[in-house]
């Protein structure tokens, strides 16, 4: 399995960065784009890295936020797209009412891609899964009050999901923002491969503070024998530094390549 970081908040080599996330995943003979960033930077970086996005077999959206899905408008058309049905939810920041949902409408995406909506898990390749809706099980990963719906209620971001792959080294979990809770995502991933160790977690953890939640997350990771982390995007640098005192941590950037 090979993962190329098309977009992240920081960049390496000659690639560009933006507040967003996009991964290009090669697993067996399948080429998967996970999230699309917020502008055309994912496609620009793909070209620089010698990746032909016309060869993409599947695009997956982790959830319906602008920094993960607005870049879709620059991707090749008529590709299969897999996402939760609620990605089109109108959503805002509570503090200033800034719109943070997708710019593309449901009709725009239906006209541009072969979309499959699923709240249930979907098998995307032999021993590779789109997890579907993530149950909120842990008692310390509460819903953030930062995001609201059109009616002013807190947005539970129920569409937040992730991918899981079984590799020779163990389970690899790929996350977008982990709004559903990174530990909840791990618990869901274990359902697909209950007897396999977790080799690594790659992506955004949505952790920003050195607090009780982080300490409980560290304890959870240790209980589940998770040792290798590739945090990015919505994982604050201070959190990454703290995690590195407990685990083998590689802070990833646009242009990085990871192989499992």
What is the strand and helix layout of this fold?
Layout: E1 2-7, E2 22-27, E3 30-34, H1 41-48, E4 58-60, H2 66-69, E5 80-83, E6 91-93, H3 106-112, E7 114-117, E8 122-125, E9 128-130, E10 147-149, E11 162-167, E12 170-175, H4 182-192, E13 198-204, H5 212-223, E14 228-232, H6 237-243, E15 248-249, E16 257-259
Parallel strand pairs: 3-4, 4-5, 5-7, 12-13, 13-14, 14-15
Antiparallel strand pairs: 1-2, 1-16, 2-3, 6-10, 8-9, 9-11, 11-12
Low-confidence stretches: none
Task: Tell me the β content.
Answer: 25-35%
Q: How many structural domains are formed by the residues?
A: 1
The name of the CATH topology is Metallo-beta-lactamase, Chain A
Mean pLDDT: 96
Query: What's the number of extended β-strand segments?
Result: 16
Derived from helix and strand composition plus strand pairing, the structural class reads alpha/beta
CATH class category label: Alpha Beta
> Main sheet: which strands, in order across?
7-5-4-3-2-1-16
**Fraction of residues in helix:** 10-25%
Helical segment tally? 6
Ends distance: 5 Å
* Rounded Rg: 17 Å
Shape: globular
**Major beta sheet, specifics?**
7 strands, mixed
Task: Say which CATH homologous superfamily is assigned.
Answer: Ribonuclease Z/Hydroxyacylglutathione hydrolase-like
Overall CATH architecture: 4-Layer Sandwich
Order of helices and strands: EEEHEHEEHEEEEEEHEHEHEE
